[in-house]
From TrEMBL:
Protein name (Swiss-Prot/TrEMBL): 3-oxoacyl-[acyl-carrier-protein] reductase
Residue ranges of domain Ketoreductase in the record: 12-193
Origin species: Frondihabitans sucicola
SUPFAM superfamilies: NAD(P)-binding Rossmann-fold domains
Record-linked Pfam families: adh_short_C2
UniProt record similarity statement: Belongs to the short-chain dehydrogenases/reductases (SDR) family.
Length: 250
């Protein structure tokens, strides 16, 4: 692991959910490069531990089901017991079960809502309580999606959850701002991850045609915006939603 590149998060402690791969891992990696210590939470505990090992001795990985309150509490407890406190919470864990409404079951709908919306609410609730108790302020970053802005056919569950995260973020920002806690959301467009690479060539072509920059994004480009929101550069930024979509759906 290289030494911190800029030190924007020097000495900070961050928790990132769903960070064994994809956007979560890219965020954790950039945070570590900028001086943070990281707790990676993932449903796959072995994958979380392996991801943390790649990041070096300032990272630990633990199993966490973000829909289970006790798991979320244990995840934050790992941060305080291992590194002494919490400064940054990134609620990133997510899943998809894309189907048209005609084919989507209630379970398909509820599962996606639970992981994204319930999971983000639990993470925001637990992190803000801990940050208030510490009295140190802090930053919470919630992962929405451009799908939560415009909706995608076949994603009534996912789009609903991601739209809900926007409302949750704004409401939470109003509740905890007095304590110096900032709550913001990211809305990535099509980013080259394992999840988006499952899309058919036809769907990829259709969505690319809507992107003014003419390409899909990279995980590192999402991570850079998360870094900004987590750092003191965004000290007067709260309750906002930042689109990282190459201009798609503007």
């Amino acid at each position: 692991m290289t030494e911190p590149a800029t030190g924007l998060l020097d000495g900070r402690i961050a928790v990132v959910t769903g960070a064994a791969q994809g956007l979560g891992y890219a965020i954790a990696e950039l945070f570590v490069e900028n001086g943070a210590s990281i707790v990676i939470g993932d449903l796959d505990g072995d994958a979380a531990a392996a991801a943390a090992a790649r990041l070096g001795d300032r990272a630990v990985g633990v199993a966490c089901d973000v829909t289970v309150p006790a798991d979320v509490d244990a995840l934050l407890d790992t941060a305080t017991k291992t590194f002494g406190r919490l400064d940054i919470m990134v609620n990133n864990a997510g899943v998809t079960r894309d189907l048209t409404m005609r084919k989507m079951t209630v379970d398909d709908f509820q599962f996606v809502i639970d992981v994204h919306l319930r999971g983000t609410w639990l993470g925001t609730k637990a992190a803000s309580a801990l940050l208030r108790e510490q009295g140190t302020g802090g930053a919470i970053i919630n992962m929405s999606s451009i799908s939560g802005k415009v909706g995608n056919a076949g994603q009534t569950n996912y789009s609903a959850a991601k739209a809900g995260i926007v409302g949750l973020t704004k409401a939470a920002a109003k509740e905890v701002g007095f304590a110096g806690i900032r709550v913001n959301a990211l809305q990535p467009g099509i980013i080259e991850t394992a999840m988006t690479q499952k899309l058919s060539d036809e769907i990829r072509a259709q969505r690319l045609a809507d992107v003014p920059l003419g390409r899909f994004g990279e995980p590192a480009e999402v991570a850079k915006v998360a870094l900004f929101l987590a750092s003191d550069l965004a000290s007067y930024v709260t309750g906002v939603v930042v689109e990282i979509a190459g201009g798609r759906n503007i």
